[in-house]
Every structure is written in C-alpha cells, then in structure tokens.
Amino acid sequence: MLPPELRTATEALAEVDHLLVALDFDGTLAPFVGRPEDARALPGSAEALARLGGGDAPGSGPRTTTALLSGRHLESLRLVASPPEEVLLVGSHGAERYSPETGDEPLTLSGAQEALLAEVTAALRGVSEAFAGARLEHKPSGVVLHVRQCSPADGEAALARARTALAGERDVHVTEGKAVLEAAVVRVDKGVGLDWLRSVSGAGTVVFAGDDVTDEHAFSTLRPGDLGVKVGDGETSAAFRVGSLEDVTEFLNLLASVRTL
Ligand SMILES: [Mg+2]
Question: What residue intervals traverse the membrane (predicted)?
C-alpha cells in the first residue's frame, strides 16, 4: 500500500514536461540474494520501468527518461538488470556511466590510483580470507568486502577489521552499506551520479528511489519539485517512504500510468 501523500505527489508528476526516473537496483528493484550475480528485478518493477521509458511518441522529445543508479560495477549491473538500450546507467556509485548518445564512459585510473588500488585490495583480501563467507568484489574504482553470507558476529568482526586496516589510507574513500564495505580510490558518490543523470538527460524534474545509506547522497541532491522515495527502514532525507519492494512496483506502475496517459 502506498502512503496517500506519495500517491498524490506521484499523480502530480503527470504534468511535468520531461521527467527523469532514476532507481537504485539492489534492495529497491531486486530483492537481496546470497550471490549478487543472482539478483533480478521483481518482474512487475521491470515491466513498469520499461513502460515508463518506452512511452515516447516517435519524433517528439523524451517525456520520461529512465535510469539505473547503482553501486555495482557497470558490467555486473547490466548482467543482472538486462536494461533496454534507452536506459541511462551509472555504476560504481557514479564512477562509470552510460548513455545511448555517448556510449560507455569507463573509468581510467592514474598510476598512483592503480598502486593504491592494489594495496587496498591486498588489505581487504587478508580480511576476507580470515572470515568464512566473506568475499571480495572487484570494481574499476575500488574493492568491496561483502559479509552477507557470514554469521552476524563474523560479519561485524570482518567489517571492524576492514575499517582498522583502511584507517591510515588517506586517499581511500570508504563507504559502508548493508553488510558491505567499499574502498574506492576515486571520490564519487550517488549524488555525483544523479547530478550527471540530471544533466545528461536534460530533465527538469527527477524521481529517485533507493534503500541504502549510500542512496542518501542522491536524495540530498534532490530539488523542490523532485520526488525521493526511501525503501524500508533507516534514517533518510527522502520526502517519502515505502515499506517493501512490492510497494516500489506499485509506485512505478502508478507513475507509468500517469506518465503515459
Ligand atoms: Mg540498494
């Protein structure tokens, strides 16, 4: 069930000329699963997103631009989300970008950043090898320690050891999410990613939905008239909140119907 105020605010978006709908993937469109590569969007959410992005009349400018804004490596995001070509993509929290016009904008690291990445990878490999169930994910921008498959006590201990291991690294940007710690050698966050999506799409109004602490950077860039939806519990600066991924499906269906009237 959507909160009535969210329903009203969504219906008001019918009037907007060009709307950007940017969505987090894991925990927003797709339920969390043990192996990140097995995550898939709820079918209803994927269909609503396709309807939102595919509704433009031929020859007219875009009325609704759709985008995915994820912490995942772009390649991994494509694998799990199978996005249609028109969907803008931001991966690695903003470090990797794709638009149909520009194609992929991959990340290139300086020599110093490459050396730092090797150092950080070695440090976190030591942590992951010490705890059963912990695993590393490698991205162009950094390395991620996943502890979702550890026991709760091991997960906490692994994250604590990782924090300690990285404490002295001045140029490493540590971001923590749900059962995950990311050490990046470039400074990006989802606010940077959403700003890029806003500018490349040319949309005047933005919708963003996300479930994690890393999504707060994106919520904080929203302007009057934009609409932010936090999924699940936790502090947020988003104006609206829904309780579940099924609610996200309902929200996207409502948005798709008001935008394609
Ligand atoms: Mg998420």
Answer: none
